[in-house]
Amino acid sequence: MQDVRWNDPKTTQYVNKHVPRVDGPGKVAGTAKYTFDIVLPGMLYGKILRCPHALATVQAIDTSAAKAMPGVRAVIEMAREGATMRYAGQEVAAVAADSEEIALDAIRAIRVSYDVQSHAVTTLTAMKDASRVSAPEEQARGQDPGQFWSSAAAVIEEEYYCPVRGHLCLESHGIVFRWDADDRATCWVSTQAVHGVAGELSGGLGIPQENLTVICEYMGGGFGSKFGAGVEGATCARLAKAAGKPVKLMLDRYEDQVAGGNAPDAYMKCKAAMAADGKLLAIEADLYGTNGPGRGWGVPFPYIYGVPNFRVRTHSVSTNAGAARAWRAPGHPQASFLMESVVDELICKLGLDGVKVRQMNQGSQVRSAQLELGAAKIGWERRNKNPGQATGRYQRGIGCAVSTWGGGGRGGSRCDVKIGQDGSVWAGIGTQDLGTGARTVVAMIVAEDLGLPLERVKADIGKSSLGSSVGSGGSVTTASIAPTIKMAVLAARARLFETAAPLLGVTAGELECAKGRVQARGNPSKSLRFEEVCAKLPAGGISESGSWNGALQQGGVAGAQFVEVEVDTWTGNVRPIKVVAVQDCGYAINRLTAESQVIGGVIQGLGMALLEDRRMDVPTGRQLNANIESYRVIGAMEVPDVEVVLFDTHDKVAGIGEPPVIPTAAATINAIYNATGVRIRTLPATPKRWFDALGAKS
Amino acid sequence: MKNFSWVRPKTLAEASASLKQNGAALSGGVELLCLLKEHLLEPDRVVDLKSVSGMREVDGSNALKIGALATMDAIANSSSIRTNFRCVAEAAESVGSPQIRNVGTLGGNLCQRPRCWYFRDYHVKCLKKGGMACYAVAGDNEYHAILGGGPCHIVHPSDLAPALIACDADVLTTERRMKLSEFFHLPDSDVRTENVLNSGELVTGVEAPATMKGWKSAYYKAKERPSFDWALSSCAVNLKVSGTTVSDCRIVLGGVAPIPWRSKEAEDFLKGKSVTGDVALRAGEAAVATARPMSNNAFKVRLTANVVRIAILQAMGMPAE
Ligand SMILES: Cc1cc2nc3c(=O)[nH]c(=O)nc-3n(C[C@H](O)[C@H](O)[C@H](O)COP(=O)(O)OP(=O)(O)OC[C@H]3O[C@@H](n4cnc5c(N)ncnc54)[C@H](O)[C@@H]3O)c2cc1C
Fold first, then answer.
1. Mean pLDDT across the stretch B188-198?
2. Interval between CA B120 and ligand 1 midpoint (Å)
3. How many CB atoms lie within 10 A of CB B58?
4. Taking 90 as the threshold, does the pLDDT of residue A1 lie above it?
5. Which H, E and C letters describe B245-278, residue by residue?
6. Quick check: A424 and A694 in contact, CB under 8 A?
7. Predicted ipTM beyond 0.90
8. CATH of domain A409-429+446-458+472-552
């Protein structure tokens, strides 16, 4: 088993090919049950009362009226008297009732008095209050950047801002919790970590971890916001205990946005210099941003490009707004927007070729080749050579940006494969599919090495009762589970060969599985049907497991994207026309879902570029757009033609769930400049930003 | 939402009577449901107008006649309206998404409440809800009024209203007939409402004179998200063209003022001129000459000038680029 490798793509029927999701039809037909769909007999509905103020002390909570309401089965205080509420939306109390409507009425009947204090809800207002700003963390390299300002061929000094964004998962956060005994429970959670939630909740509830089964067979997106069951999960469990009945507690759109996590913002004041040949010389920058009430904000900067001389100070700002959570490639989309804007401004000032300068300033050959390829695909030579010279209403331009990510796997997974005497094949691993196609990956790898049709493999995921696996974050899922599944199926196949070898009169080492048969390698005449071998298996069939094999995966991926836009200069609407996304992903297990993952990243990146913006109201301290009406996300009609190029770099699996989202916004903003000569320095590039920038320009 | 009883009247008289007992009218319910769920409206009765027969007419073959219960989709797809009152069909088509157009009605569209994010937030007690201040003044007014604002600075969200007013439409109610332009009122007369309906009074339909048939019209709506959004700014233009000159015209803006905003300045500028790209632009500039932007919405002034310009060019069938 030492020299296990991924299958040669020339020989495979599934692996490294385009394979539709095995659970696609169920998702379309509605037979796939999400947490939101779970309805249990006798189930109650939970709702949370949230503080309406951005900063306040709870003086008194009176739940008596709620408790007295018919149909209310449990009321829990989540905040104590005297507690400080640090954002509008923080949890105060919760109820469980016979219907969602009664639960909503009941939380309104809870009387809370607050001592309201003055708040700061945005980075830009809070950073004026020194007590809210952490001591800057300084990173520096080389010489004092100040000495380059007078001599460099190009120098810029600008401010940039990228706002807080939400996750906007199609399925909101939530849980259905059922106690099966005093110390035993089952829960359905919309989560990207079933085993993680089992540990989190069982610990909090004081029950043995193996007594808690966490189920997430299908989930409507997480994007980093659903690693834990969170305070609402623990509360649901307490409500279920208090009421003696199962409880369902799903957040609504308002709650999801104010309390379900977000991607932090980034504000930067920056001075930067470039030499006449395009070499970056120096950067001096102050970065500010907020994770919400807590501290510890930061983004990787300078990003990707080598800057020989820099001084960067990071200031974490505390605000009275919901806390940040991981958001698809945490920190990177922001860093990409900031860095690529700066680099692009310098390049444009010098009138250089943006592709060549990017290649020159970074060290990866893979990325350099990706830039070359992407440029050819989009037609980089078609870019506007004189931005700002066009006069028509519609102006087109092309921009680019690059990305980096880890995406290697992690140990700690176990996959089980069972082959029955009836020829049935089952493979189970306690991973979850947050939309990336994990269930299909399980079935593909097993079917491939057993030489069976995909539909012969029952792939089981999304339960903490299955073998342990990692949380789906950091793009680690496929690189963690694929090697594990591979090792499990090889172990099971070895047992199959042990039974088949004497039947065929060859050694186990000479056997292979192909087209539903077990045969002497390359010799179908010496073969048995898979089922014939299974019938001869020892009682109980085969039950084998596998664990992670690090030799089958490798982290460290690069990407480059090109975006072509058309700007309506009369209205400020930006229409993306075409995106070329070149993404290296090592050995792609399923090319179809890998490509789909890249398209999804690009779409979300376009939302960041053009629409998404959490609006905190400075006077009231409340989020003005905690809905999906005025917090706008990209709609199907706004999605351009996205050409995905999977850039095969090596024969090991790497994860790419996150990296495709990183460079899209930056490339879009650079494309707007290329089209019009107008630089948008505050995201998103809405009509307002367009006319504001025009005003600043003239 | 608060519990209510469900009333299915057979006649308009029954409907009006129920409405007077703390009732709320429901046509498509697209908007009413938002108001109920957010506790912005807490009626004892919800009166389903769909149980009343009639009020579903959609006809533009001579005079324009649209019943209050006609859906956006029916209006958008009426070929007689598209031929003779084009801006009305275009306005209906610009509303929301297909689902909303399938269900939302003319009556509901005219009587919908503002989208102002302070008004829509239950926890903010603004002027419209009996409070003491318009929060948009000190707060975030990116989407608020640049014309006619004060003391409240909402914009009227209806897409149909500007188009219908550009066609000189009357609104018919259970009590009267009046110019649709007089149906809406500015906040300084009664800050809590947007129109002059009395308690129990219902819109039954709109009518525009057949004499408007020969005019050239268009509706243009600028949105932040092109596929599905409210108007950042919109404009209905209706031109009477004799030879090459505009002998008469009606220009009505949406999304920029607390009421559908008839721009006499743009109309006066355009009358007697033959339309060129430059004339259209200057008409647009005239439309915003008296605009008073708030702290965060100056962009709407330049945007609106262009929106008027595009609508004029589109009405003339001239390229807008
Ligand atoms: C997501 C979303 C997007 C939207 N986008 C747009 C848009 O782009 N442009 C636009 O113009 N609108 C838009 N709307 C607003 C509006 O809901 C629709 O335009 C629709 O026409 C409302 O019609 P309805 O019949 O569903 O109204 P209802 O919800 O039934 O009624 C709306 C209001 O009018 C009152 N009312 C209804 N009928 C009458 C009547 N005959 N007489 C007196 N009062 C009456 C009701 O009591 C209620 O207060 C949108 C709404 C939503 C939820």
1. 97
2. 14
3. 22
4. no
5. EEEEEEEEEECCCCCCEECHHHHHHHCCCECCHH
6. no
7. yes
8. 3.30.365.10
